[in-house]
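Lecture notes, unit on protein representations.

Consider one protein chain, 431 amino acids long.
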Amino acid sequence: MSYDCIIIGGGLSGLTCGIKCASAGLRTAIISFGMNALHFSSGSIDLMGVSPSGEKITEPFEYLKDLKQSNPAHPYSKIGPEIIEEALAFFRDQTQKAGLDFYRNKSKNHFRVTGLGVLKPTFLSQKSVYNEKFKNAILAKEKIAILNFDGYRDYFEQITAGRLAKNPLFKGIEIVTGRIALPYYTGTEKNLHEFRSVDLARVFDSEKFLPRIAEEIIKNSGGAKIISLPAFIGINNFSRIHQKLEEMTGCLIYEIPTLPPSILGLRVDNALKARFTSFSGEYSAGDKVNGGNIKSGMLEYITTENYENTHHRAGCYVLSTGSFFSGGLKSGFNVIEEPVFNLKLSCSQTRSDWYSQRFFDEKSHPFLSYGVETNETLNPFGSDGKSIDNLFCTGAMLCGYNPVKEASGGGVAIVTGYFAAKQIIEKLKKA
């Protein structure tokens, strides 16, 4: 099999890269082993939310101007603000064309409410999670009702309400809680407490019970006009359902991310895959790349577990298999490695250096910033120390940043995937 570009990994970074390459007319394939990290994500895109000293960042692009001096190894430092802005605009445009709209607070971060009632800084949120109307309602100190559904055990509305009430931004706002009974439960053989977000999202997708749900919202909201619901207002028809519920109730309704599987993340995954295939991109699911042949600084071909005797060839390759969570990096007792090509890593091979003594240490854990070392164009180095010029690494597998402490994971994934695609397009045009 021969392609212009083969992308190994079908998460946020791999899909962004694939869409950009395929939209430029390149014959592009994505090989994905299984479920990606989007299914476990908040569904929002963090750009840069927290400084190394722990301060919340309001203007991320202002912060990024000086990042190259303070942290030249950071992926953003290798790319620069202009391409970062371009990549985010591309992502928003592509998801919007797939029916998924993201809110952006101009050049500033905004907050998203977590299931624990904590406010997290982020740069792009789905409009059912945060929008201008919600922002203005909070500033106007309007009453909020935080509702849950009977039988759904992965979310506790009292915790959200309790934490929000202590936040200065919500000072003076009356917050009430309530429960909604879903008619879908009537007569079901499934234990009510076994329902997950996907089960409930399918109920919403059917739209059959929306009038009844709207009645329940009005009855249990205590007269509040701002309603918070767990994030499962549909997987496929969410925009229409959200609009209908607001019209039926006369309320402003926003969603709060819940435990995995993340419906908000599923929406992003579905939108990006739809855009990739719309450009004739080939998506291969359930296969795993297990190696390839590197010769004279070039990756000649790759092999997979399902087709171990087939050499998959391309002009360029992208490795976007994530970090430890998704198997892009692996650790043994006293070793950390990149398992596909044995690429050079920036990390300590002494186990005691990998972690902090306290789980919730303010300095975080060192292993979170471990990853593949690359040059300025995101080409990694092989085991011989030489760069592989037609292989690019993107996303969570890169070293030089801490996605959890910085609140930057989604942004780095999109920006590095887009940046790699731009270089591949230019490289193949010259060939």
